[in-house]
Design a protein that fits this description.
Length: 499
């Protein structure tokens, strides 16, 4: 498994290093860049490695420049107008979220008018707006609003990482219509319409419906804290995060339909291009989380490789996904979902095949036995990749994660397929109610199993906290040693196909 055959891994490593260097003082960043150049020179001249090693310092510089551009504050940025009383016009970037006594709105500012001077400008930036009027809870994403507020500083580390530094409080807002140029708003409004249709057709409301919505559409706001905690303690929280499993189910369903066509059409570039479009639209429909977009990119690369009759190499696709996401938004490097998603996939790429070979294989090829063996290997490999990051971010380790995946993943898979069928029946009121009993029953079973697992003695092991930096280093070291150790045993064509 020669490393120079995966150029995008080098590109991703260099870009990530540059983003991290941007957090250091300038002189330390320059020292780091010089060290990378020296390292590349040593590998090129000393060990006669290929020219690919120069991508590390080159893309590290590109990452540093990209992060500096992200930090640059425009004269029209909202941060320059802290403390001013203004009339704000903007549109909602997502659905309102209920808080204790108010509703939280994430707003993209379009125009502000200063009350004292009467000056009107078009600012740059987003802000968090807290509204007391309960009628805003029905506003869809993309709704244009106008209100009078005072622009105050927002010092939350969570929001600052997302480029939001301003907040405001107001008793009510005036609704102006829909922002037609907010493209993602169309997907969010479509998701909201599907959620409302599911709520009308469901046999009963509660945790099963919320789990179905989270599993299929990535909508987690309906989950109560107890259900979230149960999934966390049982080690099955990844089921509710739209990722490779969910995109893989979409690909499986549509590839099955394509196989019903004549052979010349099933592999036709038009059919595969339409499938790629379906995957991209599904990723946007589910909220475009970091894990969903990673799976969409890797799935699209797999389809493109099939169209071009090229081999699909998971490490290359993984590096390309990192490069693409961080080029668009370098702050994603610090996102928990981004870190866990990529570390899990890295663990599967490195450890899945060796674990699969190490597990006993029956002489007769029984589907369920092989399925369980593969599920055990994937669960252990993903856990190896995310162990240190989960330790750093959550401070605990699910003890029964293997049993949880063996019991819950098959139920979740059946639930996902049943929920897709339910979605197609939603336009027919009576039929959709009857069809809804199938996913609802599976969701009840999933919730009950998760709750039982979370209540087992010693369900989670609490660990002393460790810094995230140490966890990232330990994760990279684990994956690096694992890749080196199994490099001679794994052949190119036997690398797992991961999305």
């Amino acid at each position: 498994m020669p490393l120079w055959r995966y150029p995008f891994l080098w590109v991703a490593a260099g870009l990530s290093t540059g983003i991290l260097l941007a957090e250091l003082p300038l002189y330390l960043a320059l020292i780091g860049e010089v060290l990378l150049l020296s390292l590349a020179a040593f590998f090129w001249w000393g060990l006669l490695w290929g020219r690919i090693v120069w991508s590390l310092p080159l893309f590290a510089l590109a990452g540093w420049v990209r992060m500096q551009a992200e930090k640059w504050v425009s004269p029209a940025d909202l941060r320059h107008f802290r403390g001013h009383l203004v009339e704000l016009t903007g549109y909602l970037l997502e659905e309102p979220l209920p808080s204790r006594k108010t509703y939280r709105l994430l707003v993209r500012a379009e125009e502000i008018c200063f009350f004292l001077s009467g000056q009107t400008i078009q600012p740059l930036g987003n802000l968090v707006l807290y509204v007391r009027d309960s009628s805003v809870k029905y506003l869809p994403a993309g709704t244009r609003i106008r209100t009078a507020i005072r622009l105050d500083s927002l010092t939350s580390h969570y929001w600052n990482r997302q480029g939001v530094f301003i907040r405001g409080y107001t008793p009510q807002v005036a609704v102006l219509g829909i922002a037609r140029d907010y493209i993602w708003g169309y997907f969010l409004r479509l998701r909201q319409q599907l959620i409302q249709a599911m709520q009308r057709a469901t046999p009963a409301h509660g945790s099963p419906l919320a789990v179905t919505q989270a599993l299929l559409l990535g909508y987690k706001r309906g989950l109560d804290p107890e259900t979230r905690e149960a999934f966390m303690l049982s080690g099955t929280a990844h089921i509710l995060a739209v990722s490779g499993m969910h995109v893989g189910l979409v690909l499986t369903l549509w590839l099955f339909l394509l196989r019903q066509l004549p052979p010349t059409w099933s592999r036709h570039s038009i059919a595969l291009s339409m499938l790629m479009l379906v995957v991209i639209l599904y990723g946007l429909l589910t909220g475009a989380s970091p894990s969903a977009i990673r799976a969409v990119i890797m799935g699209s690369v797999a389809l493109l490789a099939q169209m071009l009759y090229r081999p699909y190499l998971s490490p290359n696709a993984l590096g390309f996904a990192v490069f693409l996401q961080l080029s668009i938004d370098p702050a994603l490097l610090y996102h928990i979902g981004f870190q866990l998603s990529y570390s899990a996939v890295g663990g599967i790429i490195v450890f899945y095949r060796p674990l699969q070979k190490a597990l006993p294989s029956p002489k007769k090829k029984l589907f369920w036995i092989n399925y369980l063996r593969d599920l055990i290997a994937i669960s252990l490999a993903a856990q190896a990749g995310t162990l240190f990051l989960s330790w750093a971010h959550f401070g605990r380790l699910p003890v029964y994660f293997l049993l949880s995946n063996l019991l819950c993943v098959p139920i979740a898979t059946l639930l996902a397929f049943a929920a897709v069928g339910w979605l197609f029946s939603l336009p027919i009121p009576v039929l959709s109610t009857w069809v809804g009993y199938i996913p609802y029953g599976l969701a009840i079973a999933l919730v009950k199993v998760v709750e039982w697992l979370s209540q087992l003695p010693g369900a989670s092991l609490h660990l002393p906290p460790i810094p995230v930096g140490i966890a990232v280093g330990a994760t990279l070291l684990t994956l690096g040693i694992g890749a080196w150790w199994f490099a001679k045993k794994q052949e190119e064509e036997k690398l797992p196909l991961v999305i």
